[in-house]
Design brief:
two-stranded parallel ribbon; globular; binds NADP nicotinamide-adenine-dinucleotide phosphate
Length: about 210
């Protein structure tokens, strides 16, 4: 696939590297291409452009920007360039205030997730929540003693979720489909839970697994 990765941070770089590793074509999108100069040197087959360039290039898009800037980034990418496309939403709605006893603060609430806000504003885009509940270093083919971890996903479009489940297979994850966009109200806070051992005990090497 042609994959457009919107973002220039750790998540964007790790996922872009994962897609290249698995044989996809990748263009990263950013407001500041100079931030990705080192990435471009290390990944000569990858491309760098604006948010709109990456969105237009892509069959599949990854949204990996600061949560508070997610809507602005999608606007800059241009809904016209994203219409009908699957957008993997890796963002979390983390507020700018400090965590309390290791618990992050969100700017959303339990009746409205960030992905629902995006889906409501950009109705022609097929958003799928994924990759938000684990640290970036574990996103691509993670190795845990406990076996393959579970990625919780959700979104309104069944076809888009099938595409994302295929990505999860390649990236070494089991997929647990939690249903429609509203399930992001539960999946986004997994980020809070995932981060607590990190903030309290500097433990960042874990992932979730759904046992049945
Ligand atoms: N770090 C992790 O391990 C991890 C794990 C799971 C999920 N997440 C989530 O993944 C997302 C990315 O995290 P990150 O740590 O890689 O990066 P980050 O520091 O949260 O975000 C950096 C990105 O946000 C963009 N951005 C910031 N302000 C913007 C604005 N006003 N308009 C448009 N874009 C703006 C930047 O765009 P430019 O490139 O144009 O500067 C940059 O690409 C976040 O939502 C985070 O919560 C992070």
């Amino acid at each position: 696939m042609k994959v457009g990765v919107l973002g220039s941070g750790d998540v964007a770089k790790v996922l872009a590297g994962g897609f290249l590793k698995h044989g996809h074509e990748v263009m990263m999108g950013t407001r500041s291409p100079e931030k990705l100069a080192d990435w471009a040197t290390q990944n000569p087959t990858g491309r760098v452009g604006s948010f709109a360039d990456a969105a237009e290039f892509a069959d599949l898009v990854v949204l990996a920007v600061k949560g508070g800037a997610a809507a602005d980034a999608v606007r800059a990418a241009g809904e016209v360039n994203l219409t009908g496309k699957c957008v993997i939403d890796a963002t979390n709605p983390i507020a700018d205030t400090a965590p309390t006893n290791g618990v992050l603060k969100f700017f959303t609430n339990l009746e409205e997730s960030l992905m629902e806000r995006l889906q409501r504003e950009f109705q022609s885009v097929r958003f799928v929540k994924a990759f938000n509940s684990v640290g970036s270093i574990h996103m691509v083919n993670p190795q845990f003693k406990g076996g393959k971890p579970t990625m919780f996903i959700c979104g309104n479009d069944e076809g888009a979720k099938k595409v994302v489940a295929g990505v999860m297979d390649q990236f070494g994850w089991e997929t647990a489909d939690m249903g429609k966009a509203e399930a992001a109200r539960a999946i986004e806070p997994l980020c809070m839970l995932w981060c607590i051992p990190g903030f309290l005990r500097n433990e960042w090497s874990h992932a979730f697994k759904l046992l049945t």
